[in-house]
């Protein structure tokens, strides 16, 4: 990874002093069951934020609200200055799902096939990957030290390699913000350390900001270069 990537990202107009995401007095309830009561935070360019919470604390609900999968109230979530309720184009936001979701891949797709087919925005009307899409996929796999595993079925990869593949997939569109949902669940300690190092590299060299949500308190404690860290409890965020 080179400094050119950082320059390219900062030239997109995402000044490090400008908010990448703002959350103001966010509240959410399922029918009459309050989950989030007053969530507030601001993340700027090339910053990192971790949110720790026990099962049932509202982590998944918060993630779905940030990604526009659940309807937030207007004027509560802004991504790159745009109200999330009005956001249509999400290419500037990369998403890495929970590891237990990625392990449920039932068809024999390889990392190369996965990354090629994910470039739907750049495909023709028939939406089938071609030579140029596979070339981009190979370059991305090489960048993330995955080229040797490009033709191995995803389900046969180790947890650490699956995790790295999903980050490579999320970075295909060169997002400015990366959102990671329980990315290290079930991954061994060495792969967790490698994962945190990779996030720091993406932040420092690509200029991205990221939000990581986890139930693993020890993971947050290992994140020595994190800019903000919170615990979600009783519907609010508390400093860790």
List the helices and strands and how they pair.
Layout: H1 3-10, E1 19-30, E2 33-44, E3 48-52, H2 59-66, E4 77-79, E5 82-83, E6 93-96, H3 99-102, H4 111-117, H5 131-143, H6 159-170, E7 177-181, H7 189-206, E8 209-214, H8 217-222, E9 228-233, E10 236-239
Parallel strand pairs: 3-8, 3-9, 6-7, 7-8
Antiparallel strand pairs: 1-2, 1-4, 4-5, 9-10
Brief descriptors of the model:
six-stranded mixed β-sheet; 240 residues; four-stranded antiparallel β-sheet; globular; alpha/beta; disordered N terminus
- The strand line-up of the biggest sheet is 6-7-8-3-9-10
Briefly note the structural class of the backbone: alpha/beta
> What Rg do the Cα atoms give?
18 Å
The overall pLDDT average reads 87
Give a nutshell description of this structure.
The chain has 240 residues and is of the alpha/beta class. It is 32% helix and 25% strand.
């Amino acid at each position: 990874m080179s400094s050119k990537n950082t320059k390219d990202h900062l030239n997109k107009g995402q000044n490090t002093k400008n908010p990448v995401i703002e959350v103001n007095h966010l509240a959410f309830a399922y029918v009459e069951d309050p989950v989030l009561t007053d969530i507030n935070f601001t993340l700027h360019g090339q910053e990192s934020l971790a949110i720790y919470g026990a099962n049932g604390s509202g982590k998944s609900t918060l993630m779905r609200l940030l990604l526009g999968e659940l309807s937030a109230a207007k004027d509560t979530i802004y991504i790159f200055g745009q109200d999330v309720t009005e956001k249509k184009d999400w290419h500037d936001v990369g998403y890495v799902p929970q590891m237990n979701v990625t392990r449920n891949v039932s068809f024999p797709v390889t990392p190369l096939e996965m990354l090629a087919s994910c470039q739907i925005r750049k495909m023709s009307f028939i939406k089938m990957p071609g030579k140029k899409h596979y070339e981009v996929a190979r370059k991305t796999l090489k960048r993330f030290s995955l080229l040797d595993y490009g033709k191995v079925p995803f389900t046969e990869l180790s947890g650490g390699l699956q995790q790295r593949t999903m980050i490579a997939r999320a970075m295909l569109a060169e997002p400015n913000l990366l959102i990671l949902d329980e990315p290290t669940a079930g991954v061994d300690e060495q792969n967790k350390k490698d994962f945190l190092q990779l996030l720091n590299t993406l932040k420092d060299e690509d200029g991205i900001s990221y939000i990581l949500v986890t139930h693993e308190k020890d993971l947050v404690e290992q994140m020595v270069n994190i800019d903000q860290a919170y615990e979600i409890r009783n519907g609010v965020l508390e400093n860790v």
